[in-house]
Structure formats: structure tokens, C-alpha cells
Amino acid sequence: MKNLIAELLVKLAQKEEESKELVAQVEALEIVVTALLRHMEQSDQQTLIRSIEVALEDARPDSQVPVQDSEMLQQYVKKLLRHPRS
Predict the structure, then answer these.
(1) Coil, strand, or helix at residue 70?
(2) What's residue 66's pLDDT?
(3) Could you tell me what percent of the chain has a pLDDT over 70?
């Protein structure tokens, strides 16, 4: 029983580390996208944002992907593009 608990704790620690890495990757991407948007002309920025939103709309996932997941992705993309980090 102790071995099982020890193994579960090790796996939990590994998952937590993977989660931290994913959070760091997402934050890094947010910083990069924000910096790129801030250095673009306003008209180019709006053109890029519209293009991304159209591409996202065209790439709607099939029915196997839960609607809630798809909506969450769209919300995060919109937030990132329309309201970048300060």
C-alpha cells in the first residue's frame, strides 16, 4: 500500500511539473503575441486580427469536440487579440 501511495505521489508531482511547463509556454506565447501586436501599425493589426478570427471560424472542429471547449478556445483567442496583456 505504501508503494502505491508513493507511486501516486510521484505521478502527481510529474503532472504538476508538466502543468507548470504548459502554463509557462502559454504565458510566453501571450507575451510574444502582445509584443508583435503592439509593434504593428493599427491597420495591419486589425487586418491580422480579422484574418485570424476568420481562420478560426473556418476551422471549427467537428462534432466530436465539445462545444464548450471550442467556445473556450475562441474566447481565449479573442481576449489575446482584442485585449492583450498590459
Answers:
(1) helix
(2) 82
(3) 93
Which residues make Cβ contacts (< 8 Å) with residue 84, sequence separation at least 6?
Answer: 30, 33, 34, 37, 38
Contacts of 49 (CB under 8 A, 6+ apart): 81, 82
Distance, in Å, from the CA atom of 6 to the CA atom of 21, rounded to the nearest integer, reads 23
Three-state DSSP state, 73:
helix
Cα 65 off chain centre by: 16
Taking Cα atoms as reference points, which of 55, 59, 49 lies closest to residue 80? Answer: 49
Contact 77, 52 (CB under 8 A): yes
Mean pLDDT estimate for the chain: 87
